Amino acid sequence: MNKVVRDRLAHLKGQVRSAREAQADLDPNYLIKGWLMGGATSVIYGPSNVGKTFLALKIAQAVASGTDWFGCKTRRQHVLYAAAEGGRAFENRVAALRAAEFDWITHPFDFHANAIDAQVLAHLYNEMNPNPAPGLIIIDTLARVMAAGDENSSVDMGLLIRNVDTLARMTGAHVMLIHHTGKDTALGARGHSSLRAAIDTEIELSRDEESGVISVMSRKQRDIGMGRDAYYSLAEVHLGTDPDGDAVTTCIVAEAEAQEPVVKDKRRPLKGHQQVAHQALLDALRDHGQKRSGPDFPGKPVVHVDHWREACKLHGLLNNPKSKDGGRNAYKRAKEWLMNSDYVRSYQDYWWVC
């Protein structure tokens, strides 16, 4: 056994512990309880214009000030927001927070080809951090710090991950990346899958187009339980007026309630005799509906077929003088169509709507 192997073996022996020595960690090192752990890495991703930067700014302010984030406890730590996509628009967003307590810098960092930038940013953070405990560094966005790299390349993504790890290791801070989804949002964050494998926390943002409410969903947690969600909308903030007298505005995050999912009706649309028969059944249920007991009844009002038939007569579908059979075949076909198209159900001559 050569000296290098002996030294390595001696080092490893010193780290072996008995399982009997293990003790529960009852004081987790969190930044946002249930969402972000200290010293870890995370990605927040979503489609364009979903408000990723606005949410990241809310995270930055919550951790820097020690205030609750969507009802979750935080631990007050130093925060540095590295806005690689910065500019006047970003500064307006910071100003809208009113007395924000974190630090920020706008600079085109390169975490792909230039390994120095991660080290320089780490030294900058350490010099600025007045607290003994490490805090949070937000990188906005991954695409900008990827520079000339290819997000879909395992080699290029590996270089970026290595620089993120360097930044986290040198500072002890939680490093958060702001990222985008690809063309197919169902596939998650854009780029090579090695990113998801490497990070500790993954948070997805998606917008409900009808309500405008944005969902914040925990998609991966290495050391925390899953299943947490939060919801917000973007509220406009008036910052002042420009030299022409026009309003200057931006947005901030406003907490919102969860939206009930809208289930789209995939059934074929009603028309003609089917629509008449369906309306006749609704009228019959209104006038004669009753609940019947039994496992095969739906637990809501049902009506006997005779009442439905009478309602069809009132609507002109049956006893139709213009039809040779008085509309009987039209009524039969409409009833079958409604059944096959999941508009109605029946049991023992009693009918109800789906």
TrEMBL record:
<dbReference type="GO" id="GO:0004386">
    <property type="term" value="F:helicase activity"/>
</dbReference>
<keyword id="KW-0378">Hydrolase</keyword>
<keyword id="KW-0067">ATP-binding</keyword>
<protein>
    <submittedName>
        <fullName>Helicase RepA family protein</fullName>
    </submittedName>
</protein>
<keyword id="KW-0547">Nucleotide-binding</keyword>
<feature type="domain" description="AAA+ ATPase">
    <location>
        <begin position="38"/>
        <end position="209"/>
    </location>
</feature>
<dbReference type="InterPro" id="IPR027417">
    <property type="entry name" value="P-loop_NTPase"/>
</dbReference>
<dbReference type="InterPro" id="IPR003593">
    <property type="entry name" value="AAA+_ATPase"/>
</dbReference>
<keyword id="KW-0347">Helicase</keyword>
<dbReference type="InterPro" id="IPR038724">
    <property type="entry name" value="RepA"/>
</dbReference>
<dbReference type="Pfam" id="PF13481">
    <property type="entry name" value="AAA_25"/>
</dbReference>
